[in-house]
């Protein structure tokens, strides 16, 4: 069993829809990262959070430490949001354990 | 500010050869991480260097090795290449000593082993 589980694996949405991607982890963490990977491979770090909630533009990330669960929300989704979203748990020795990723496609 | 740069962008090698991948971190970052993303698989942690020393390595055989230079740039070496080493190799840098500083990724090197 993977220590970091993401759902859904694939998600197709219409432009403007509200999107939620979930991440559950079974290990103790010091921080949880949300990453965005576009075709071609480049990765952008969206959020790093260890408690509560963070917001950047149309993106919101939340984490519940007690429940070992984090969510990434995208409001008013746009086709340019289409990408793979990956959550990663940072444990001891700064090692990251990655989820398998969520392929998001936003249709115009 | 220049981001994390990786070279080469693409690399084609034959089985049994050696591959060398390079990474230059963001100026001021002393920690460099290497990750492997094989086709259809998720990201896997390979190596972590900080202040010139290997601090941690993932579950990879010893033929995966590397080093960090005094200017904090890093090399990843893969010896005796196998077909399953074909993957995207990503480098990330962060401020050393800051336990929860954000990661900055390069665009990766795509290694193909034939």
Strand-helix topology:
The complex is a heterodimer of chains A (108) and B (114).
Chain A: E1 4-7, E2 10-14, E3 19-25, E4 31-37, E5 43-49, E6 52-56, E7 59-64, E8 69-74, E9 83-90, E10 96-98, E11 102-107
Parallel strand pairs in A: 2-11
Antiparallel strand pairs in A: 1-3, 3-8, 4-5, 4-9, 6-7, 7-8, 9-10, 9-11
Chain B: E1 5-7, E2 10-13, E3 19-24, E4 31-38, E5 43-50, E6 53-57, E7 64-68, E8 74-78, E9 87-94, E10 104-105, E11 109-113
Parallel strand pairs in B: 2-11
Antiparallel strand pairs in B: 1-3, 3-8, 4-5, 4-9, 5-6, 7-8, 9-10, 9-11
Our measurement of the CA-to-CA distance between the termini of chain B, rounded to an integer number of angstroms, reads 37 Å
| Main sheet: strands, sense, barrel of chain A | 6 strands, mixed
Question: Which range does the strand content of chain A fall in?
Answer: over 45%
Computed CA radius of gyration of chain B, to the nearest angstrom: 13 Å
Briefly say what this structure is.
Chain A has about 110 residues and is mainly beta.
Structure description:
- The complex is a heterodimer of chains A (108) and B (114).
- Chain A has 108 residues and is mainly beta.
- In chain A, strand 9 and strand 10 form a beta hairpin.
- Chain A starts with a strand and ends with a strand.
- The relative contact order of chain A is 0.34.
- Chain B has no helices and 11 strands.
- The model of chain B has no long low-confidence stretch (mean pLDDT 92).
- Chains A and B meet through strand 4, strand 5, strand 9 and strand 10 of A and strand 4, strand 5, strand 9 and strand 10 of B.
């Amino acid at each position: 069993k993977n220590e970091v589980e993401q759902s859904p694996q694939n998600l197709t949405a219409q432009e403007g829809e509200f999107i939620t991607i979930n991440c559950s982890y079974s290990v103790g963490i010091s921080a949880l990262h949300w990453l965005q990977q576009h075709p071609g491979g480049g990765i952008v770090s969206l959020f790093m959070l260890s408690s509560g909630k963070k917001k950047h533009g149309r993106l919101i990330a939340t984490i519940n430490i007690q429940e070992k669960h984090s969510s990434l929300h995208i409001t008013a989704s746009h086709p340019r949001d289409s990408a793979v979203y990956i959550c990663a748990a940072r444990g001891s020795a700064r090692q990251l354990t990655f989820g398998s990723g969520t392929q998001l496609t936003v249709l115009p | 500010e220049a981001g994390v740069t990786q070279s080469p962008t693409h690399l084609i090698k034959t089985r049994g050869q050696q591959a060398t991948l390079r990474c230059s971190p963001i100026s001021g970052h002393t920690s460099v991480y290497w990750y492997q993303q094989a086709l259809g698989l998720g990201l896997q942690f390979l190596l972590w260097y900080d202040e010139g020393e290997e601090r941690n390595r993932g579950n990879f055989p010893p033929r995966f090795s590397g080093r960090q230079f005094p200017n904090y740039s890093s090399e990843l070496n893969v010896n005796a290449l196998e077909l399953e080493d074909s993957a995207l190799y990503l480098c990330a840098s962060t401020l050393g000593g800051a336990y929860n500083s954000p990661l900055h990724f390069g665009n990766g090197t795509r290694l193909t082993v034939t």
